[in-house]
Amino acid sequence: MTSIVLACVAIVLALPSVGSAPQTATADGRPRSTHHAVPWRATDIDGHAWSSDTLHGRVVLVDFWATWCAPCLEDLPRLKRLHARQGPRGLTIIGVSLDRATTRDFRSWLQRQAITWPQVREAGQYESPLARTFGVEAIPASYLFDRDGRLHATSLRGDALETRVSALVEAR
């Protein structure tokens, strides 16, 4: 019986945690994602083009959300803190809104909430080109990329998001 329990524990410990990417080590022993780069392009509501290529060298968090999504709204204070603390150190957050409101109403909402990172809105919500590129089926959905453009983790929230972003930013 004890050997069965130990075998089960070993299997569970070997499984990757939710929201993590498979890891290998770099020459200096630091963990490195084994995921490949995910090429993507988008234009924010101010007309600025963003892509995986133009953001190379920065840690990037692509955050799919909407103003009607309660869990998304719960994440906003943490995202504001991350943007303020880690933005100057190499983090770029790209919000991808699945809202149906007019651009004018959406801009007004962003201004009232003091959300200053770029926001993308594409027609089609879950069927939009960007949502389809990332395979978004529900929100909130986040995709964290390292400085080389490799997908490092998905669906991170709360403390796990903050910890992973900070580790990637500091990993220069």
Question: Which key terms come to mind for this protein?
Answer:
two-stranded antiparallel ribbon, alpha/beta, 172 residues, Thiol-disulfide oxidoreductase ResA, Glutaredoxin
Walk me through the structure.
Its main location: other. This is Thiol-disulfide oxidoreductase ResA. The chain is α/β, with parallel strands linked by helices and 172 residues long. The protein has a single domain, classed as Glutaredoxin (3-Layer(aba) Sandwich), CATH 3.40.30.10. The chain is 35% helix and 22% strand. It is built from five helices and nine strands. A five-stranded mixed beta sheet has the order 7-6-5-8-9. A two-stranded antiparallel sheet has the order 1-2. Strands 3-4 form a two-stranded antiparallel sheet. α2 packs parallel to α5. It is globular, with a radius of gyration of 18 Å.
Total helices: the number is: 5
Profile the largest sheet: 5 strands, mixed
| SSE order | HEEEEEHEHEHEEH
- Order of strands side by side in the largest beta sheet? 7-6-5-8-9
Instruction: Please state the second-level CATH architecture.
Output: 3-Layer(aba) Sandwich
Residue-averaged pLDDT = 82
Signal peptide: 1-21
Pfam family, one: AhpC-TSA
Keywords: Cytochrome c-type biogenesis, Disulfide bond, Redox-active center, Signal
Subcellular location: Cell envelope
Short description:
The protein has 172 residues and is an alpha/beta fold.
